[in-house]
């Protein structure tokens, strides 16, 4: 998978050189490129924002730098020249490039969405700052490809970078080969729609607390049943909204 990130803080993503995503980059499983939005400004101050039409506090990110930055990526990731030379060449995906903008006004990011995004050959993330990005950027690129505003949750961050980091981690770990043991992806919170069961490891007793005896029984049927019951109990207690509708 190729991932492009557009941001005014490219140094923010240097942390993606370590851990799982870092290894995936070194092995070529993920081709991640970070682009500085300011490289696509043309004024002396490299300005990327301006006052909002209609008044109001804060600043809005100007459309021109975003348009140039995204065009530059699309030209390289989706070689338009090739398409005009050989129009039957498929684009990277039939539905065209996927642009994701983190936003508190976006659709909620979920494990199901992470699984869908992990199937994309290319993702382009646009990190907004300030009061957001001029709406016409979303409208313009929605015509050529797919634009999705995605939210991590109902709170406000100062910009999209932290959200993009979280999404890249959630999506990246689902790409085949990134996580050593794919089995470990199966029994996790939200994979089956429920929260995961509690986990234990050695020692069997610790500060007067014993591991639940069923886990030491070797009875795999009883262990599976106990784990399922723990999932349902924990989900009902912490996230009743995730419980399947009572039939
Ligand atoms: N919650 C957010 N606040 C600002 C930017 C992005 C956000 N998000 O959740 O993706």
From TrEMBL:
UniProt record similarity statement: Belongs to the RNA methyltransferase TrmD family.
UniProt KW tRNA processing keyword: yes
Source organism, top-level taxon: Bacteria
Name of the molecule in the record: tRNA (guanine-N(1)-)-methyltransferase
One GO biological process term: methylation
Record: residues binding S-adenosyl-L-methionine: 128, 152-157
Name of the coding gene: trmD
Subcellular location: Cytoplasm
EC number: 2.1.1.228
Organism: Cryobacterium sinapicolor
Main location: cytoplasm
EC main group: transferase
């Amino acid at each position: 998978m190729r991932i492009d990130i557009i941001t005014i803080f490219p140094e923010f993503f240097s942390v993606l050189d370590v851990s799982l995503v870092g290894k995936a980059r070194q092995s070529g499983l993920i081709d991640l490129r970070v682009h500085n939005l300011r490289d696509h400004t043309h004024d002396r101050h490299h300005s990327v924002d301006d006052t909002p039409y209609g008044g109001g506090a804060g600043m809005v990110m100007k459309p021109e730098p975003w348009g140039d930055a995204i065009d530059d990526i699309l030209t390289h990731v989706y070689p338009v020249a090739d398409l005009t030379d050989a129009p039957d060449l498929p684009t990277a995906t039939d539905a065209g490039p996927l642009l994701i903008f983190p936003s508190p006004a976006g659709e909620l990011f979920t494990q199901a969405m992470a699984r869908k995004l992990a199937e994309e050959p290319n993702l382009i993330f646009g990190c907004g700052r300030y009061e957001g990005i001029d709406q016409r950027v979303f409208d313009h690129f929605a015509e050529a490809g797919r634009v999705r505003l995605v939210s991590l949750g109902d709170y406000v961050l100062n910009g999209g970078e932290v959200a993009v980091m979280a999404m890249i981690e959630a999506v990246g770990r689902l790409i085949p080969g990134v996580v050593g043991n794919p089995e470990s992806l199966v029994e996790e919170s939200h994979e089956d729609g429920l929260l995961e069961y509690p986990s234990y490891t050695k020692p069997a007793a610790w500060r007067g607390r014993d591991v639940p005896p069923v886990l030491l029984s070797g009875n795999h049927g009883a262990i599976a049943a106990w784990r399922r019951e723990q999932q349902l109990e924990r989900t009902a207690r912490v996230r009743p909204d995730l419980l399947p509708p009572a039939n």
